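FAQ: What does the model actually see?

It sees only this:
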Amino acid sequence: MFCPNCGRDNSGERKFCASCGTNLEAVSQALSGTRDDFFTKTDAALDQLIARYAEHVFKDAPSKLNDRRVSNSWKVLGQGAITSFVDLILFSLMWNILPLRFLILLISTPFRLLSQRNNQQVSTTEGTREKGERSLPDPLPNKWLPESFPSISEHTTRNLEEPLKTERKRVAGKE
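And it is asked to produce this:
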């Protein structure tokens, strides 16, 4: 369908023009002279509801909802019925599996917790044994410094001895 506002050719399933955003459904209704009555709107809404429900089984269920042919309505209804049947089977399976799983967890949880606690205690005692037997690794060579630098306090005592000697001489000379 061509947009009456900008003239762009849009596919028939679009509700709005991709270029300017004009409402194409209103344009198609005005051109065809048909207006949707209450029953048509209700029918379309029900088809949309069923298609959205059937979408988790049939991925393409809501893809052709804009095509308002009777055959598409029957197709959507069939997909909804098949989806309901699949959901009923899954519901009955889960109704039996969930209580079984609950009972298994109820019975096995204390034993599994005790087993996990024992495994943790065993692993921690083995870890402490291994740590006690280990020795420290050899220190790595000084890779980052090109040469060793003297420490700040390396010559402090030697530098302090000279002023102390001169002060002692001065104090001795005054006496």
